[in-house]
Amino acid sequence: MTRRKVLGWCAAGCVGLGMSQFDNRNDLRIERSQLKLPRWDADGFTAAFLSDMHTDSRQQGERAAHAARMAIQEKPDVILVGGDFVSSMSPMALPLALSFVDVLMESKIPCYAVLGNHDYWVKETPRVIRELSSKLQTKRSRLLRNETVEVSGVTIAGVDDGIAGRDRHDFLARHHDKNTLLMFHEPDFVVRVDKRASLMLAGHSHGGQMCLPFGISLHTPRGAKKYIKGFYDHAKVPLYVSRGIGTVGPDRRVFCPPEVSILTLSGA
Ligand SMILES: [Fe+2]
Fold it and tell me: What is the mean pLDDT of the chain?
């Protein structure tokens, strides 16, 4: 073995060790935000937002279920789910996604969800949509695909996925000019949404997933280049982007812990 090879192996070992030391994929955090919104008068309304579960392995499924339990403990007025339930059709992906939904359903807290690009990229998308939709079809929960529901005087609008080309933006009614929470998986597509929405909630970016110290992101996917994490009050409509719960690619997060967002809303 040459000296160069030995040095290469040593460097790879150091990077691997560093990655494992900083890996915070299981370090689920509650991110609490008090957001002031111009088109809002339901002061104190609280939404929990979960996104990007990617329940492709048992560990990912357990993380998603744990995030669901953390959200429930906060006793929000509504739980919103921002898409990317699955990202492969490993035999356990869909059952784990359905178990995650089961945890949410047991709480009796109203719960509404949209789909993400990965839900459309798996081999058996029709089955994924059918089973998620049927599991979420109760008096107080639903998969929203370009439609709205009302929860305690607040409109929940769910836009179907943008990368998959399933989004529509003409379904808000005339009276939806305030107290409207709109979910749309890809944050950069905020430019497409109806301006009357009070707040858009998005995921998709994973906050960069593998970041430099202080959470500086190195790469984000198409649809999450401009808006990556946190609150953007000067977007076309106010926008909150979650770092999400799961992972894509290597099951690792570096300087980018997964989040359960708890958003308490009031008028600006
Ligand atoms: Fe996504």
Answer: 93
**Domains in the chain, ordered, with CATH?**
3-267 (3.60.21.10)
Distance from the CA of 236 to the center of ligand 1, in angstroms?
21
pLDDT at 22: 79
| CA separation for the pair 58, 71 (Å, rounded) | 20
pTM across the whole model? 0.92
- Distance of CA 41 from the midpoint of ligand 1 (Å): 31
Spacing, Cα 161 to ligand 1 middle (Å): 9
User: 11 alpha carbon to ligand 1 midpoint, in Å?
Assistant: 32
Model pLDDT for residues 138-191, shown as the tens digit of each residue: 999 999 999 999 999 999 999 999 999 999 999 998 888 999 999 999 999 999
Cα 50 from Cα 160, distance rounded (Å): 16
